TrEMBL record:
GO terms for molecular function: ATP binding; protein serine/threonine kinase activity. ATP binds at residue 46. This is Protein kinase domain-containing protein. GO terms for biological process: regulation of macromolecule biosynthetic process; regulation of mitotic cell cycle; regulation of primary metabolic process. One of its GO terms (cellular component) is nucleus. Transmembrane segments: none annotated.
């Protein structure tokens, strides 16, 4: 019997489902649109791939199964069943079917979403995160998604947004515990993760939400960087330069650095970039994109923000627009949209997941010190009252080696 079948309730055979056509593929699975032969229901079938796991079972698949079997929320994609294939060690996950992902949909639209539609989408995403981040607080455990991006936001014909792909999700306790910094797709990655901290919390999800909101408003990504250093530059160009006053947690990161800041600190361009956004909308966006994770808005703070109470009000789900399905019978056409996203691992499961480091970048270690010349400056967004506790470990010997390698390019000593 397959290890997944041993750990989880496998209730049916794949013979129950008729595969219609492939709609996506990632490092850890191929996804098909399929029909349930017993009730004619359309579902999404995800075939788990075992060739990327040392022990045969991808840890992302086990993690995703465990998480999805423990959650139940209208804005989180529903895992219906686990079924066996015709061959040994062949497992399929049966999900509810959604016609679109928001990233592909946004790329294919001739016009952007209206502000009331954006509010509807954002509110649904925040509802899912309030559920994930707050559900286990009473037990001193919190869940992080760790890969929020446009292509992990599904959209169905009823105007509902569904958060999907929980392969990187983690439960964590509210005390310091090291975790991998190799999480979150680059364009949506929080600055503390880019700086290599291994102790972080659900605030990294909220930074990603800010990136999603900005992308919905602009109809293009906020930080479409080729590598980690460029991503940090883009963040500072838009938001201004943080310093140890506006981000006290930087002190631990900068403590071992001898790099000098540039003579010209960067100022925020957020208002100039979003000229037509109301003051409340700008306040929400800047609160989500706060460099300091301690002052970054939580999901509950964000969903209670006055932005949602000013006109135009969020559109009701039943009034949201519908679109022709992004999935069709020609796999080549399915790959047509979002080619730039795909190159940077922004579609499907190729995004992160434990493979080799991005060929475009130098990896997290290669960026540790280059970012310091960007962050040790004056200016940046205003400080908010602290509502969480975060920890940032000092740089280790490997990071000091990186300082020597990149120091000259970034105005070293």
């Amino acid at each position: 019997m397959d290890p997944l079948a041993d750990q989880f309730d496998v209730v049916d055979s794949i013979q129950r489902y008729e595969k219609l056509y492939r709609i996506g593929e990632g490092t850890y699975g191929i996804v098909y649109k399929a029909r349930d032969r017993e009730n004619d229901e359309i579902v999404a079938l995800k075939k788990v791939r075992f060739d990327h796991a040392k022990d045969g079972v991808p840890v992302t698949s086990i993690r995703e199964l465990r998480v999805l079997q423990s959650v139940n929320h209208p804005n989180i994609v529903r895992l219906k069943k686990v079924v066996t294939g015709t061959k040994a060690e062949s497992i399929f996950l049966v999900f509810e079917y959604c016609e679109h992902d928001v990233g592909r949909l946004l790329d294919s639209l001739n016009s952007s979403f209206t502000l009331s539609e954006i509010k509807c989408l954002l509110k649904q995403l925040l509802e899912a995160l309030v559920y994930l981040h707050d559900r286990w607080v009473m037990h001193r455990w919190v869940m992080m998604h760790r890969d929020i991006k446009m292509s992990n936001l599904l959209y169905n014909s009823r105007g509902q947004l569904k958060l999907c792909d929980f392969g990187l999700a983690r439960y964590f306790a509210h005390y310091p515990s090291a975790m991998t910094p190799r999480v979150v797709t680059l364009w949506y990655r929080a600055p503390e993760v880019l700086l290599g901290t291994e102790i972080y919390d659900e605030a990294i999800d909220m930074w990603s939400v800010g990136c999603v909101l900005g992308e919905l408003l602009k109809s293009e990504p906020l930080f479409p960087a080729e590598n980690e250093m460029e991503c940090l530059r883009m963040q500072c160009n838009l938001l201004g330069s943080p310093n140890t006053k506006t981000w006290p947690g930087l002190q631990g990161i900068l403590a071992t650095s001898n790099l000098k800041p540039p003579e010209q600190p960067l100022c925020s361009n957020l208002r100039q970039t979003f000229r037509h956004l109301s003051d409340e909308g700008l306040d929400l966006l800047s609160g989500l994109l706060s460099f300091d994770p301690e002052t970054r808005f939580t999901a509950r703070q964000a969903i209670r923000h006055p932005f949602f109470n000013e006109r135009p009000l969020p559109k009701a789900c039943e009034d949201m627009p519908t679109f022709p399905s992004s999935h069709n019978h020609n796999p080549e056409n399915n790959e047509h949209f979002s080619q730039k996203r795909r190159r940077h691992g922004l579609l499907g499961e190729k995004a992160v997941g434990g493979g080799s480091e991005s060929s475009a970048g130098r990896g997290i270690k290669g960026l540790m010190v280059s970012s310091k010349a960007l962050v040790q400056q004056q200016g940046g967004c205003s400080s908010r009252s602290s509502h969480r506790s975060s920890h940032f470990p000092a740089l280790d010997a490997r990071r000091e080696e990186t300082q020597r390698r990149f120091g000259e390019a970034f105005g070293g000593p």
